[in-house]
Amino acid sequence: MTDLRSLPVPDGLEGERLDAAIARMFGLSRTRAAELISGGDVTVDGAPAAKSDRVSGGSWLEVALPPAPSAPVPVPQAVPGLAVLHEDDDIIVVDKPVGVVAHPTPGWTGPSVVEGLLAAGHRVSTSGAAERQGIVHRLDANTTGVMVVAKSEWAYSMLKRAFKERTVDKGYHTLVQGHPDPSRGTVDAPIDRHPAGDGRFAVVAGGRPSVTHYDTIEAFRAASLLDVRLETGRTHQIRVHLSALRHPCVGDRAYGADPTLAERLGLRRQWLHAVRLGFEHPGGGHWVEFTSEYPPDLRHALDVLAAES
């Protein structure tokens, strides 16, 4: 059953192509938006339109959206390498390995943190959507490091609020190509879905406010190791912002990294690791902080660079 949406075009999208406007308004890929238009599922001011037509602010859109795919329900399954760093009545802090998502999503067939914890007999909060039990923040599948999961319903509410209000210290280390100039700085640039509609994100005017602070830890001949602190938590934020600076994370081919350098360092994913996470403990209000060591593949890449310097 389709979901018929009727609403005006926001003034901020004045002059945009119709397919781009629909993608932005409904969180679709550009390709999917174009398919809806060509299939006759979109009208502008009551008339059919072409995907390349430019929209005007205030024009009336009617879009027949297909039903959203149902999210998979977590099924307990063991996740090798998923280590528990800390556990108490309210929280579980884990060290997430590579190739693991935070929770099940449509189209993902690999392991997830939620399913791994359930398989190991841990209790997690049941607040929120069924597939996101206990999840208050996420790391990309190929980003490793420290994550907190809520066990109690109180912890879920308090941690969600803390992430929303930006009172959580989220620290990452990343290896980037070249040498950022200045060596320490802030990227304050809005992020939204990439216009290509291919699952990537990009710095886009009118996107969601996003702020990333970075500081160089060590400069190698071909790359720099950075300490990164996030004020916001947008999808792919570090990867997008550093790519926008023309210093993509080493190994991050989706955002313009050099595959030759990644191969030389033995990397099969982006060099990005969540090294620390600090927040007020929801059970007592005291500040807690957890850290994670580099996994072997990231450590090996640094060893190779150090030997070359």
TrEMBL record:
<comment type="function">
    <text>Responsible for synthesis of pseudouridine from uracil.</text>
</comment>
<dbReference type="GO" id="GO:0120159">
    <property type="term" value="F:rRNA pseudouridine synthase activity"/>
</dbReference>
<feature type="active site">
    <location>
        <position position="140"/>
    </location>
</feature>
<keyword id="KW-0413">Isomerase</keyword>
<dbReference type="InterPro" id="IPR020103">
    <property type="entry name" value="PsdUridine_synth_cat_dom_sf"/>
</dbReference>
<protein>
    <recommendedName>
        <fullName>Pseudouridine synthase</fullName>
        <ecNumber>5.4.99.-</ecNumber>
    </recommendedName>
</protein>
<dbReference type="InterPro" id="IPR006145">
    <property type="entry name" value="PsdUridine_synth_RsuA/RluA"/>
</dbReference>
<dbReference type="InterPro" id="IPR006225">
    <property type="entry name" value="PsdUridine_synth_RluC/D"/>
</dbReference>
<dbReference type="Pfam" id="PF00849">
    <property type="entry name" value="PseudoU_synth_2"/>
</dbReference>
<dbReference type="GO" id="GO:0003723">
    <property type="term" value="F:RNA binding"/>
</dbReference>
<dbReference type="Pfam" id="PF01479">
    <property type="entry name" value="S4"/>
</dbReference>
<dbReference type="InterPro" id="IPR050188">
    <property type="entry name" value="RluA_PseudoU_synthase"/>
</dbReference>
<dbReference type="InterPro" id="IPR002942">
    <property type="entry name" value="S4_RNA-bd"/>
</dbReference>
<keyword id="KW-0694">RNA-binding</keyword>
<dbReference type="InterPro" id="IPR006224">
    <property type="entry name" value="PsdUridine_synth_RluA-like_CS"/>
</dbReference>
<dbReference type="GO" id="GO:0000455">
    <property type="term" value="P:enzyme-directed rRNA pseudouridine synthesis"/>
</dbReference>
<comment type="similarity">
    <text>Belongs to the pseudouridine synthase RluA family.</text>
</comment>
<dbReference type="InterPro" id="IPR036986">
    <property type="entry name" value="S4_RNA-bd_sf"/>
</dbReference>
<feature type="domain" description="RNA-binding S4">
    <location>
        <begin position="16"/>
        <end position="74"/>
    </location>
</feature>
